[in-house]
Each structure stands twice: as structure tokens, then as C-alpha cells.
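As promised in the previous annual report, we have extended the structural survey to additional targets. Below is the entry for L-fuculose-phosphate aldolase.
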Amino acid sequence: MSIQRPLIHPRDEIMQTMSRIYGYRMTTTSGGNLSIREENGDIWISPARVDKGNLTRNDIVCVKADGSTEGLHPPSSEFPFHKAIYAARPDIRAIVHAHPVALVAFSICHAAPNTRLFHQTHSISGNVGFAPYACPGSEELGQSIAATFAQGCDSVILENHGVVVGSDSLASAFERFEAFEFAGKTSIKANQLGTVRYLDDAQLKQAANRSVKLPTFEPGIATEQERELRLKLCQFLKRGCRQRLLISTEGSFSARLGDDSYLITPTQKDRESLSIDDLVLVKDGHSETGKKPSRAALAHQAIYAKHPDVQAIVFAHPVNGTAFSVTDVKFDTRTIPESYVFLLDVAHVPYGVQYQNDGSIADHVSPKGPAAILENDGVLVTGSSILDAFDRLEVLESTAEAVINAKAIGDVSAMSQSVIDELRSAFNLG
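The corresponding C-alpha cell record, generated without further manual editing, is:
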């Protein structure tokens, strides 16, 4: 087996990852730092006192194994704890430290989020730890954090400070950071709704063991329709990630090509960075050679087979919609006209239905209910086009957020049945 060689320069990888973290509003202009440790002991790290929203590749600093530095700026003031973590955990090759609001909230409550909200946050976040406070930039802070990592922790809340995660590459460290932050945000939102439900070992195992292995085929020349759908899917995937409707490690989006074929996202690839070539064509139950379709491929296939009008499907994990999925609180669309007209009645799907290969997930969506809340696994949305499915996903998340926010103000007042009847008549909803 050949060893994969990293081809992107550490300067560029740190710059691009920090740009993404800042763009997601997961850190501030002055907060946070990233590093990569190379085989020879050199550590590349973001600089001290440079705008995180405007880093260039030349701003990144290299701290040599002998302690000397190369770069236009001094290294981050937090370099001591990066160095201490690398010394304590030789398996760690990259570190992300930032101050995302949700995890800062946990840090000032001296707590850490329970990642068993859904399977991906639990598996990607790894072992969770908590490091006692010490002054930022001090050797004492480095010792505190390194000691927590030395215990086998991968995602560590820093008391009254923020969060640090480590992994074997910066790409996987970012995914870990994002999943951990997602768990924190979802937990906070869900606690505003009601009692939060967590997954047990058997449920986590059920999700982890699901797989799909389709026979393969060699596709012919792509049609104009296929090329157009590939482009649109990639555009909306990027938009969904940047709007935090999708997360990089989980979720699937597909578009129907014909009665027996569809395009779908691949498994185990960053959703935001997908290209048109990464998308997988599935035809007659066969997957195009050399690619692995999403593990949800059979669920998409079952929905297309049962519902001829469905042209696009998305399984996603927007924070507020997922907050409903981890509680028993009913998701009610009868809040404003747009919510009801776009979503109608949203079903609540018991845990694990979407993992079964019996097609039963298709029974939980219909023209009268194009979207569903998946217990401890986000949401499912269907549409008459990629745009329609994405629009409904946006409306569902906006509705969920509005309801959660409304609970801080007073009692949520749903529209009356007479208003619903008027909407059904005005918009020909049947």
C-alpha cells in the first residue's frame, strides 16, 4: 500500500483552514491559532497579532526543530502549548485552537458537551477532555493542556478560554473541531427546547456499521443534463456548508437524472471542497467505477423509486433543525405562512430508519410532507429541483431557529386552522 504524500504547502493549508474557520464565524480577528508539525520536527504556525480574516501564505511562521524561526512575524503567543501537545502525543500532527461561541460557553461553565447527540459528532470528536485554567501563552497552560491530551483526549475544552483539538492532519483536525463545535451549538439549542436525548452504545454501533456496496459500471459520455446537475449540486453544497446548513463530515445531497439514475455526494469527503468529478453517478443500482457513493445512497434510491415527482434529496444537519431531532419536541410549521406553504407537515422519523436498506425511509416523506426530522440525525428534505430542496432546507432551519428563539420571549402561538385552510386554498396545497 502506498503512503499518501501531502502535496499542499503548510503555509497554504494553514491559511486556507484559518480562512474557513474565520468565515464560519468560529473565531475572531485576534483569536485562535493553527499549526502543523512536520516529520523533521519543524512546526508551522499562524502568527501573533495578525488579522485572522486576512492571512496570506507569507504570514505563516515556521518554528524550526532547533527553536529558530523563519517568517515575517513572531509565532502565535500560544506556541508553547502547541509544542507541549506535540511532545505529549507523537501521533498528533496538527492542532486547531479557537474561541467558537458555543464551546466558549461550555468553557465558562466548566463543562464539555456530550457528543452522543448523533453518531458523527461522537465518532469525529474523539475522546473529550477538560483542561484547568492557566494564563494564555504560559508554560503552565502548555503543561495543563498537554497533560489532558496525554490521557488520550482529542478534543479539549480549556477552562475559561476556548477549545483545542488535535489530529493526524490539519484537514482531520478541522473536521474534529467543526464536529465538536456542532455538538456544542446543538446541545445549547436543544436544551432551550426540552430534554435532550443521547445515543446509547447500541445506537452508535448501528450507525457506525451501516454501509453500502453497489456493483459498479463504466459510465459513458456525460449528457448536458448530467453536467449541469453536477455543477448545481457542487454550488449548493458549498453554499450549504458556508451557511452552516451542512457540515463537512456528514450529510448527503442528490439529484435525479432519470427514472433509474441519480447523482449523489461521495462518502468520506469534505462536502465544501467537492468538485464535479467527485460526485457519483448511480444507475440501475450500480455506482460508477472508482467512486464510493454516500452511505445514504440506498435511502435516496428508495425515495426516488417511490416518489416520481421528487427530483432532489438532501440529508443534512443544520443546528436548529438537529436540535429538534435530539428532543421529543414536535416541529410545528404552522408559525408563518412561508413555513407551512414550503414544508406542510413535517414527520418525525424514529431512530435508525434511514440506515435500514429496506426502503422504509421513503414512507416518511410525500407530497403532503416533503421534509422530515430524523431522530438524533438531523433532517431529510425533498424537492422538485436542487434549488427547491435547498430552499426548503433553508426554510426548515429558519423556522426551527425562530421557534427556539421565540421560546425565550414567550409562548409560541401557531396559526389557527382557519388560516391553514386559507393557505391551502390560496396556494393549491390540496
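The chain has two domains: 10-193, 211-426. Residues 202 and 218 are 38 Å apart (CA to CA). These points will be discussed at the next consortium meeting with the crystallography subgroup.
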